[in-house]
Amino acid sequence: MRGCWVWFWADHRQYSDHFESVIGVDFTPAQLELARSRNPFANVTFKEGVAESLPVSDGSVDLVTSSMAVHWFNIPKFYAEVDRVLKPGGVLACYSYHVCAPLYKGKNLYSEFYEFWENLNRYWPKKYDPLKTEYTTIPSCYPEDLHLK
Ligand SMILES: C[S@@+](CC[C@H](N)C(=O)[O-])C[C@H]1O[C@@H](n2cnc3c(N)ncnc32)[C@H](O)[C@@H]1O
Fold first, then answer.
1. Name one GO molecular function term (predicted).
2. How far is the CA of 5 from the centre of ligand 1 (A)?
């Protein structure tokens, strides 16, 4: 396959085997510096750029991913860019983290941890709200969107 798009510097380990070319994009130079310093793959490169104006040509990408970042983007502009860069049949995958269920001596501490998480959430900026709702509040890019947990 040709072309893949990632924002998560750890992701390139998963994608480098499956795509001829993997491009990591972020607008924060420090993120890119760290990503480059830890990248052993020849087919993975990093570019400084914004999600709303991606530095790739029209219809050239098979997969666009966003790891823990889409809630920061201007969604209508980002979706228009995704539509521009994806090949027909290409895929956009946006993912993030949520509360884990820690085990301690065989006991599932989900409810205790969730209480801590809920308290912590009060101090997060509004921009983080889509994380709390597991991205269900972010509008769909395409009508056939899937929401996976
Ligand atoms: C929570 S960090 C996630 C970083 C990385 N994707 C990961 O999974 O570890 C969010 C990242 O999104 C980047 N970011 C936020 N808005 C952006 C935008 N409009 N265009 C490009 N990068 C953006 C920030 O610079 C930051 O590095």
1. S-adenosylmethionine-dependent methyltransferase activity
2. 13
Q: How many domains does the chain have?
A: 2
Q: Are residues 107 and 122 in the same domain?
A: yes
Atom from ligand 1 closest to the CA of residue 50? 20
CATH number for the domain spanning 31: value is 3.40.50.150
Alpha-carbon dihedral angle through residues 41, 46, 51, 55, given to the nearest 10 degrees: -110
How far apart are the C-alpha atoms of 18 and 63, rounded to whole Å? Answer: 11
Q: Cα of 7 to ligand 1 centre, how many Å?
A: 6
Question: pLDDT for 38-76, tens place per residue?
Answer: 899 999 999 999 999 999 999 999 999 998 899 999 999
Domain span at residue 45 reads: 5-96
